[in-house]
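Chain A, query sequence.
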Amino acid sequence: VSLLFSVFFLFALVPGLQAQNVDDKIKALEQELAKLKTDQITLKKQATAAEAALPSFSYRPGAGVSITAPDQSWQLKFGYEFAYDMMFLEGNDARREGDFGLFGRRNRPAVNYCWDRCFYEFVAELDFDGDETGTRETTNQRSAMFIHFEQMNPFFPTLQFGMDAPGAGSRYRSSELTLELPQLDRNNGFNTGSHTGIGFRWEELPVGQQFHYYWVIHGMGRGDGLKDQSNKQDHVVYYNISPFGDTKDKWLSGLGFSAMAWFGNIDDRNATNSTTSFQLRTQEGSTRLVLFQTPTHGRGDPHTFLQPSLQWRVGPYQFRTVAGFDRYHSDTTAAVPVNSRGTYWKFMNDLMLWSPKGFLTGSATTPNTLGVGFSWERTWVDCGFVGCNAAAGSGGIRRNTLVIREVGLRYWFRPSLSLHLALKQHDLNNTPLPAQIATGCSKNTAANPSKDCDWLDAVLRFYWIF
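Chain A, predicted structure.
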């Protein structure tokens, strides 16, 4: 009986012991899993904290690479602008680039550093462009400091100052399908507005308004840290308004008006002071032809350059027009007063023909977009008296008229990367003899400075803004 009882007891006890053992193992596994989960959460928090302590990297086409601190206390940007031209310039190959001529139109690395959430900003850009004389030239393209007071209040300005600070020309003076700026802009000292001085910019005023004032200390175009010994300063004001920019009306939302005025003060006590003349010349390649050159102007009334412009954009079509009025009035007590005038009009038509979305769609920021453009520009210049044209071989000419008709075709492989073909037909009356010979309008034995010449140039430009 005892033996049977013992066997029965063992059979009854073993399942209980086994069940208790399984429960213990399950509890042990649950504890181990809970510990692993806690460790995983801890590791994840540590990884998140480590990641938050590292700078972030981003890239946007046309704006370059940005490295930003996690708390946005500082930011560093790197950019690059590159444009390379293949040219087919009509005329004498010994005097112009000729067929398949290559020219580095843009070659500009840039760095931008800002701190305190970009309240303070510094910009530095180098210019490695192929220059106009065929020699290698390296200069500042931009070197300026900005303090963004508008972060405190939108009615406060951005303060800028530097040894090569930017200035704003009338906003709509060029377009995506126009190869270069208007003739007078490029050759009267304003160009990109580069100067040494101080500026105040209001960018976010109501109704899409912008206003800039530039106090130009050492003359417009007198950048790169160069200066003159003069107490004469130039003044530039800029205004832009897009009154319907926030509306959904497609006929009005793309309407804008802009204007710029440059008031220059000539100091003829110093030969290195602000711009004292303007000229007309071709803009392609390093063998640029001077077509008209005003004499050097002395003291007199302030030099003025006024430039209004207008834009209307609807769907795939954009129309822009700009005018320029440049005036020099020399000292009236001079034996021969030199009063130079330059006036131009330019009309630009851009049409986006095709993109992957279909015909009459696309933009400069849409990959695989094809656009076509046509522009017409007429510039009239007069330097005041017979024989005042200082361009070589101009003879006894005092005035000139240049008409440029341009057709452009541009394909954007992606935003900020494009191939641009431009055909530019020039028509110039009173053409100087060297320009006649260079463009093939006359032979070397010709001597007719008042001859009317026309020529056709073609440029294929590879353009990339990193």
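The first strand starts at residue 56 and ends at 60. The longest helix spans residues 2-52.
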